[in-house]
Amino acid sequence: MVIINGNEFDVSGKTIAQYLGETNYSTARIAVERNGEIVPKSQYDTVILNDGDTVEIVSFVGGG
Amino acid sequence: MVLGQEQAQRYARHFVLKEIGVSGQKKLLQSSVLVIGAGALGSAAIIYLAAAGVGTIGIADYDEVEISNLQRQVIHKTERTGMKKTASAELTIRELNPDINVRLHDEKVTTDNITDIISMYDFVIDGTDRFETKFLINDACVLAEIPYSHAGVVRFEGQAMTYVPKKGPCLRCLLGSVPPPQETLTCSQAGVLGAVTGIVGSVQALEAIKYLLGTGNLLTGRVFTIDGLDMVSKVTTIPHSDPDCAVCGTEPSILSLKDNKEEYEIKSCTI
After folding, report:
1. What is the rounded CA–CA span in Å between residue B256 and residue B164?
2. Looking at the partner chain, which of B152, B236, B238 has a beta carbon nearest the beta carbon of A61?
3. Chain segment B128-138, per-residue pLDDT in tens
4. Which domains does chain A have, with CATH numbers?
């Protein structure tokens, strides 16, 4: 299981890009942190989620 | 610096806070904050900075007050439609607190002028309404090593974080580059509720005041998010910078704003 924003998801083995593809997140407007480190957008296709990973996804908006 | 009798009364509620006190108040009165954008975020931030006695407040904006601004931009007034936002904000500050030295930067921030403007201040607040400008402010503050508060608001949602040089990630560490226009919505396209901009703009003023006083825990390495509709707020800890960040990483590719000018040009489709 992977803990994403505090909830458990059965997504181990998937890349971050594969997980995000199943969600409504706008990839350009999010920051993804895995086990305390930022995952650069260029690595979404290659970083694979493992059992026990903790992931935080934060969405940003641009208005003001 | 000696506080006058009126100042002693004005800031009495600060004196009893151990984090401020008389010495902290003097520090605030001798500090300077630049607010870029006298819009919705800027309105809340400027009003609370002025009320708190932040001695010098700079305001950078090139727009004029429109009637459609007033449901959220609470520093402006109905009779001031058509007036420069900088001039309108200055009037409100003067009514609220005559202690404040107001500096107006009646121009659009660009790669040519932003470094000179931000370098005059201890802390910068980004109250602008476009990712392109938010990245310009981010990169300028990173390169000039000036702390600043980032924020954004659309609809009922918003976020804020505080960049302090070499102490945590910058906006570019987190997002990489300006999101393409089809991925973003401006307030005019998506709508926005003033009460939400008030919360987030207040958070920005609070961060500036904490930074100036050197007290509390900043939103550095942490992102505050709020969804005002479901009333869920959260602080996500993202403690480390991205070592590959193009502006604050170990081998940055953005060494001057001019080299990266194209990214800061407004591409968002606006109504």
Report:
1. 19
2. B152
3. 999 999 999 99
4. 2-59 (3.10.20.30)
Question: Using CA atoms, how far apart are residues B117 and B87, in angstroms rounded to an integer?
Answer: 18
Q: What is the tens place of the pLDDT at every residue in B81-94?
A: 999 999 999 999 99
pTM of the model: 0.96
What residue in B sits closest to A28 (Cα-Cα)?
B179
Q: Do B242 and A40 touch (CB under 8 A)?
A: yes
ipTM: 0.93
The fold for domain B20-264 equals Rossmann fold (3.40.50)
Closest C-alpha to B223, from B204, B236, B210: B236
